[in-house]
């Protein structure tokens, strides 16, 4: 970077100082609205949760007297303080949506052949329990506890019946092979139940890497804010059609210097605004103003890992928006293209709706989209971290965006 | 000061914008390059100011080829592009400080080029609050920061009101009085009349043009 580029950087710093308060106010206002909406939704969910602790969806091979009996038994025999209610669903999509809307905590899918498998004493087909990440541990524990409780109740009752039968038979003087047969029945029953120790397989949907929906949407809001930020912060770029690019180049700030300096200032302003949002969220949590807020902003969001993930997310999304602005321009058509692309890439990257509810191709595409990379950085910070592919895509897309910005600026310089 | 432009060529792909452009200018002259929109006037000026890379050609001042030493161009040439290339949200002073050091700025405001532009009148005002004429004066002030002997002005009075235009014309006169040379790219009749010599740029070729006050003929020839 030459002296002229440094002078331009100083000038951008002055511009940022002038423009920052307005942009920051815009960011915080947006964040405040989102927070209020989230708190209202969260409070409503809490009320719903206190009335019914666990509602469980059930689907698959349910038209069996065995299953009907099992459901009634679990509902009626439940006396360990956990209220369970079973709701039948026709298809998995409906059940997944009910999980997302928090209408049910989990759904159990009974695969074809499961009943036969149980009746024949095999252990080859398992129940599939689909739970949201936020409920994974608690639901697994509850379901296992409830089912084992019911099973043990039945087992005890069954054993009592068999022992009673043996006693009656003994008193009646019936001896011989009957004893062996009843012992066999008892042993078989015990073995069947014990050998099906891993009778439940838990499959997680929704958000992996994050603790729950609140964190997921906190990350999503950050990505959406960043993606839409360019529409509100165009003044950080050179005014198109005013000859400023040419004037700057004449003054010794070449295309590379212009793009680098402007991107840097754009990145700094974006990051400062998000940092302000982040700090505000932290201040709310630390102040302990309201209990529901603690759920919306869990601890992991305020770790050093999350801070660095935020830096990465701002870098990649800013670079993409910068390149878009450079290529599309500041006209109404250009702004529309930027808006549509920002919303579209956010959608594909799972910011509006958890990616696992969307077709698999969206997940693959999201790995190579700036919004998707940003989401992955934020979601996996502090846990397993972003995958190697995500990190490689981060550097690749960053270079691509910078190259596109240089190309756009050069083209514009020629056309101006 | 002897200014010569020799065999300048520029193409975008297969499209030839400038075909073997040559001309010379003397000290204190005002040279007008006339042409319709898209004829290549801005490309010619941007090329001579070192902003766009020309395919070939020489631009010499007293025998020194400026295109072979781009960083030195600002010592000889001032360039005012179309529009208002300023940062609206900053003050006039902040804009000037990109082009001048503090010392240079103070000196120029007291008795240099900036004083003749009367920039002191609005030095602390935000650019967004300045009139069109003031903004043009300020962009002229930025363009001449290197103390050049040649000034390229691309459509200097486009979208200015009459007082604004008068201010620009006055500055052009002052600039020439010091023995310096002005090149303007224009299709404005008033500006054409101000020029000592005019050239018509059409289909990439430059030819001398003498305007005799027949506007209808000029329009046809553009």
Strands, helices and their partners?
The complex is a heterodimer of chains A (416) and B (222).
Chain A: H1 3-51, E1 54-60, H2 65-77, E2 84-88, H3 92-100, E3 106-110, H4 114-119, E4 127-132, H5 136-171, H6 177-195, E5 200-205, H7 213-232, H8 244-250, H9 255-287, H10 291-296, H11 304-328, H12 332-348, H13 360-367, H14 370-380, H15 388-415
Parallel strand pairs in A: 1-2, 1-3, 4-5
Antiparallel strand pairs in A: 3-4
Helix pairs in contact in A: 1-7, 1-9, 5-6, 7-11, 7-12, 7-14, 9-11, 9-15, 11-12, 11-14, 11-15, 13-14, 14-15
Chain B: E1 3-12, E2 15-25, E3 30-34, H1 41-48, E4 56-61, E5 64-65, H2 73-76, E6 77-80, H3 92-99, H4 102-111, H5 113-116, H6 132-143, E7 150-154, H7 162-177, E8 181-186, H8 189-194, E9 197-202, E10 205-209, H9 215-221
Parallel strand pairs in B: 3-8, 3-9, 6-7, 7-8
Antiparallel strand pairs in B: 1-2, 1-4, 4-5, 9-10
Helix pairs in contact in B: 3-6, 6-7
In short:
Chain A is an alpha/beta fold and 416 residues long. Helix content of chain A is 69%, strand content 7%. Chain A has a 5-stranded mixed β-sheet, with helices on both faces.
Q: What labels would you give this structure?
A:
heterodimer, A: alpha/beta, abc type-2 transporter like fold, 2 domains, 5 strands, elongated, B: 222 residues, alpha/beta, six-stranded mixed sheet, 34% helix
């Amino acid at each position: 970077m030459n002296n002229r580029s440094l002078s331009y950087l100083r000038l951008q710093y002055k511009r940022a100082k002038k423009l920052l308060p307005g942009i920051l106010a815009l960011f915080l206002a947006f964040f405040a609205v989102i927070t209020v909406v989230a708190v209202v939704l969260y409070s409503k969910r809490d009320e719903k949760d206190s009335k019914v602790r666990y509602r469980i969806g059930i689907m698959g091979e349910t038209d069996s007297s065995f299953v009907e009996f099992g459901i009634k038994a679990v509902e009626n025999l439940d006396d360990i303080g956990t209220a369970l209610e079973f709701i039948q669903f026709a298809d998995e999509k409906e059940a997944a949506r009910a999980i997302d809307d928090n209408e049910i905590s989990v759904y159990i899918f009974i695969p074809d052949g499961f009943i036969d498998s149980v009746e024949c004493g095999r252990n080859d087909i398992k129940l599939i329990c689909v739970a949201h990440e936020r409920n994974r541990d608690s639901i697994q524990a509850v379901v296992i506890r409830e089912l084992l409780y019911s099973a043990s109740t039945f087992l005890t009752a069954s054993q009592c019946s068999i022992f009673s039968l043996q006693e009656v038979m003994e008193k009646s003087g019936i001896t011989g092979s009957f004893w062996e047969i009843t012992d066999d029945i008892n042993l078989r029953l015990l073995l069947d139940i014990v050998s099906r120790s891993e009778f439940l397989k838990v499959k997680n949907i929704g958000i992996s890497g994050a603790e729950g929906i609140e964190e997921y949407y906190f990350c999503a809001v950050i990505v959406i804010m960043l993606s839409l930020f360019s529409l509100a912060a165009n003044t950080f770029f050179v005014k198109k059609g005013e000859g400023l690019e040419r004037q700057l180049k004449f003054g010794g700030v070449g295309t590379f210097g212009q793009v680098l300096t402007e991107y840097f200032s754009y990145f700094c302003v974006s990051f400062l605004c998000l940092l302000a949002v982040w700090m505000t969220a932290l201040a709310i949590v630390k102040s302990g103003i309201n209990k529901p807020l603690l759920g919306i902003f869990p601890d992991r969001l305020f770790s050093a890992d999350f801070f660095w993930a935020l830096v990465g997310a701002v870098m990649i999304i800013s670079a993409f928006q910068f390149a878009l602005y450079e290529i599309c321009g500041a006209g109404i058509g250009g702004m529309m293209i930027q808006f549509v692309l920002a919303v579209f890439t956010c959608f594909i990257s799972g910011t509006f709706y958890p990616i696992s509810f969307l077709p698999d191709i969206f997940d693959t595409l999201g790995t190579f989209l700036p919004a998707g990379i940003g989401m992955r950085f934020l979601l996996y910070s502090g846990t397993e971290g972003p995958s190697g592919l995500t990190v490689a895509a981060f550097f690749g897309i960053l270079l691509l965006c910078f190259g596109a910005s240089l190309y756009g600026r050069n083209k514009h310089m020629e056309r101006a | 000061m002897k200014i010569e432009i020799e065999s300048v060529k520029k193409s975008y792909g297969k499209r030839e914008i400038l075909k073997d452009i040559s001309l010379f200018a003397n000290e204190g002259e005002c040279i007008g390059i006339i042409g319709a929109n898209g004829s290549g006037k801005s490309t010619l000026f941007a090329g001579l100011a070192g902003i766009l890379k020309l395919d070939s050609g020489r631009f010499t001042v007293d025998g020194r080829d400026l295109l072979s030493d781009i960083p030195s161009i600002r010592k000889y040439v001032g360039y005012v592009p179309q529009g208002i290339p300023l940062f609206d949200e900053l003050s006039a002073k902040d804009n000037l400080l990109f082009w001048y050091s503090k010392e240079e700025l103070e000196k120029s405001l007291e008795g240099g080029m900036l004083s003749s532009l009367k920039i002191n009148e609005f030095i602390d005002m935000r650019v967004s609050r300045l009139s069109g004429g003031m903004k043009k004066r300020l962009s002229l002030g930025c363009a001449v920061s290197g103390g050049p002997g040649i000034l390229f002005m691309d459509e200097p009075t486009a979208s200015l009101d009459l007082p604004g235009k008068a201010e620009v014309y006055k500055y052009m006169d002052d600039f020439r009085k010091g023995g310096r040379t002005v090149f303007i790219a224009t299709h404005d009749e008033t500006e054409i009349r101000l020029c000592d010599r005019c050239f018509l740029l059409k289909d990439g070729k430059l030819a001398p043009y003498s305007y005799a006050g027949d506007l209808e003929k000029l329009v046809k020839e553009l």
